[in-house]
Amino acid sequence: MRNLLLAATAMLATLSLPAKAELPAPLLAKVNAAVDADSARLTAIFKDLHANPEIAFTETRTAAIVAKELKALGFTVTTGIGKTGVVGVLRNGPGKTLWYRADMDANGVKEATGLPYAATKPQKLADGSEQWAMHACGHDAHVTWLLGTAKAMVALKDAWSGTLVVYGQPAEEVGTGAQAMVQDGLLERGFPKPDFGMGSHTAPGPVGYVSNTAGVRMAGTDQLDVTFTGLGGHGSTPQMTIDPVVMAAQAIMGYQTIISRTVDPQTSAVLTVGAVEAGRDNNVIPASATLKLNLRWFDDATRNTLIKRIDEVSKGVAIGAGITDEAKMPKRVMKGNAGPLKNDAALVDIVNPGLTSLLGDGKVIGNFPAVMGSEDFQEVMNAAKVPYVFLLIGVAPMDRVVAAQKAGRPFPYSNHNPDFFVDLAAVPLGAKINTVAALSLLAKP
After folding, report:
1. Is residue 358 part of a domain?
2. Same domain, yes or no: 12 and 149
3. Which of 64, 80, 185, 386 is deepest in the core (most CB within 10 A)?
4. Which of 337, 363, 379 is the C-terminal boundary of a domain?
């Protein structure tokens, strides 16, 4: 995500939004007071979540915290949707229904921040294995913001009317959590049907800035594995084998030409091989090798081209290595998919004036270009066939952002990096931002 937030002043000059959507100053003061009074609790929750990350579909501890806090606030809570998903419902008279989501899962990253509340131990999984985990994408902040917003909306019930549905979603990082909740009956369990949805995400721009733009905001994504099957053997007699590691290596290089030589140069697309799994011993040529791929795209035609060419490159490599048995040709497994995220223009126009009132002029970016990062939040909204708005919230200290840009880097760190962190000042502020967005959408007529 390039220069996400520092260009705010110049960008805002072209932004035209209806003044009627601005929240009254007394209500903004109540928002600030409510969240400020809750700041210590929110900071404690955030630090606890950060120190105890859980990877996709294992978020049992996180889900229990979400459920406990929502029940204490008077929400009607349902757990176990899509394995670990949590839904809370708060009815507050007649009006529209807003669904607000926070994702809960962490990344398989070993933390290197050195924070006093850093994750310092691997996560033990149900099968007894261990996996390093870290909230390197800010989902700990997302959960905390949701809980802060939920409490503020309870405290400010006189200021809005309608129904607020908040939900903690598992497994965003693997791109299957939203679909898992839908497939587990999220929209058929009797929850109030949404009229619109909202969500938010951390961004490594400065604290106090928000990007909220209409139209396509984030790319579509696919997670897929390609497995090459060869003939294993002793490392000293490669002539008696068909080496799947060599096939995988050739495929990796071949895949890189798909973007540069098949996709239109003016079309944005990304193909990343994030992991290679093959063998264990130095002197053994294994029988198979698996490549874990991630794709990013903005239209179905590009997606279809990427997948078609991956299959062609994989098969060509296998044939070149001497594979003749069709049963041993490379196997592609699609594991997760989400389409592009598209903000509704009308909802952006409703939300942004209140955010400007909260943060100040020049702090809300309304015309930032789309990014290659992806989300699955929209999959629930698309299944429900309702419009939505998704905010990108700055979480980096301003001095770090300025120093990075002076050094020629757009950000001081990136999401999914072992050094990623959320400045503690962004914890209560993020709750305020989401509360203002929710109030703007559920304001009394």
Report:
1. yes
2. yes
3. 386
4. 337
Q: In whole angstroms, how far apart are CA 239 and each of 97, 234, 328?
A: 66, 10, 18
> Which residues are annotated as part of the binding site?
137, 139, 173, 201, 416
Q: Quick check: is 3 in a domain?
A: no
Look at residue 143 and tell me whether its pLDDT is greater than 90. Answer: yes
- Residue stretches of the annotated binding site for Mn(2+): 137, 139, 173, 201, 416
**Final residue of a structural domain among 337, 372, 388:** 337
Q: Is 103 a catalytic residue?
A: yes
Active-site residue, selected from the candidate residues 38, 173, 222, 376: 173
In a shared domain, residues 111 and 148: yes
Q: Quick one: 323 and 364 in the same domain?
A: no
* CATH number (domain holding residue 71): 3.40.630.10
Annotated catalytic residue, options 59, 103, 105, 344: 103
pLDDT at 399 over 80: yes
At residue 157, the pLDDT reads: 98
End-to-end CA distance of the chain: 37
Structural tokens at position 385: 């066939």
The verdict on whether 399 is a catalytic residue reads no
**b/e 218-249 (16+ beta carbons within 10 angstroms → b):** bbbbbbbebbbbbbbbeeeeeeebbbbbbbbb
Region 75-85: mean pLDDT is: 98
Which two three-digit tokens encode residue 235?
A: 């490392």
Q: Which of 380, 216, 231 is nearest to 299 (CA)?
A: 216
DSSP-assigned states of every residue in 14-31: T----GGGPPPHHHHHHH
Give the alpha-carbon dihedral of 245, 250, 251, 253, to 10 degrees.
Answer: 130
What pTM does this model have?
A: 0.91
Instruction: Tell me, rounded to whole angstroms, the distance of Cα 353 from its chain centroid.
Output: 25
Q: What is the pLDDT of residues 183-240, one digit of tens each?
A: 999 999 999 999 999 999 999 999 999 999 999 999 999 999 999 999 999 999 999 9
